[in-house]
Amino acid sequence: MPQVSPSMQFSSYVICGTPRSGSTLLCRMLTETRVAGCPHSYFRQEDIAEWAEEWGVEPARGPDDVQFDKAYVTAMRRVGTNDTGTFGLRLMWASVAGASRRLDNIAGGKADIAARLEETFGPTLYIHLSRLDKVAQAVSLICAQQSGLWHRNSDGTVLEGEETPRPVAYDGGQIAQTVRELEEDDASWANFFRSRAIEPLRLTYETMSDDPQLALSKVLSALGRDPGLARTVKVGTARLADATSSDWVARYRRETGRKA
After folding, report:
1. How far apart, in whole angstroms, are the C-alpha atoms of residue 85 and residue 61?
2. Taking the CA atoms of the chain, what radius of gyration do you get in angstroms?
3. If you count Cβ atoms within 10 Å of the first and of the last residue's Cβ in the chain, which end, N or C, has fewer?
4. Taking a C-beta distance cutoff of 8 angstroms, is the pair 126, 12 a contact?
5. For residue 147, which of 170, 131, 130 has the smallest C-alpha distance?
6. Which residues have a Cβ under 8 Å from the Cβ of 65 and sit 6 or more positions away?
7. What is the pTM (predicted TM-score) of this model?
8. Within 10 A of 142 (CB to CB), how many other CB atoms are there?
9. Chain Cα centroid distance, residue 135
10. 12-256: in CATH 3.40.50.300
């Protein structure tokens, strides 16, 4: 299994994350370098029909349509590589099983997902993107779900979601449940790497927020690309944290005694 080493040559990478961990910013910056593909959540089940239509792939005739899966993954490879020689993919834990099923369907048999990814996209660098403050992460996710506003561009315009956000309401029970789910997903990724002897490139939301270009340079360096390109890429998204989310985090900590 791949280890992060300066001497390794990767032709693909997978950003292994959880929601609201900074993956959208990292994906946009990698795309902007024009040397590291165009990473996106191409295996997210809810978006596959939309991607397929955009790419001109005929709709699936059923859940295990081999021809659809072949055409879809072929188009995915083309779009995700973006004429750079490096394929980029963002993969949340919730999408791992679906990705494995589709790649197994194409191959005509079962195999480990890591083997399938390398077989399909070439030697793969794994990037583990996590967020240390799970309470803040949970609050960010719940605010996005309730408001319908997911991301803003750096100029404040809406990148993804509702132009007029819906009202939000504090729910301590929902925060607790979301924290548990995020912790479980992070633990699943940790087990994924450990059980396959994979040493990923590790990044955190917190350090990436402090210096996005530094995080980008680490990825470029691991991919064998010029890390200096990172300083030419602008930060393309704005942070959504505001007084409401800060108040929710503080209130939840008071109610539960959970420290930062």
Report:
1. 32
2. 19
3. C
4. no
5. 170
6. none
7. 0.90
8. 21
9. 19
10. yes
The residue whose two tokens read 């963002």 is 90
Residue type, 91: L
Query: And the tokens for 151?
Result: 């991301």
Region for 156 from its dihedrals, namely left if φ exceeds 0, alpha if ψ lies in -120 to 50, beta otherwise: left
For residues 198 and 189, what is the distance between their CA atoms, to the nearest angstrom? 11
Q: What are the mean pLDDT values of the chain's consecutive 10-residue runs (260 residues total)?
A: 58 96 94 97 97 97 95 98 98 97 97 97 98 96 90 72 88 97 97 98 94 96 97 78 90 89
Question: How far are the Cα atoms of 12, 13, 61, 124, 140 from residue 121, in angstroms, in the given order?
Answer: 6, 9, 25, 7, 32
Nearest to residue 85, comparing CAs of 9, 24, 198? 9
Instruction: Give the span between the Cα atoms of 30 and 254, in whole angstroms.
Output: 38
237-238 vs 149-153, strand pairing mode = antiparallel
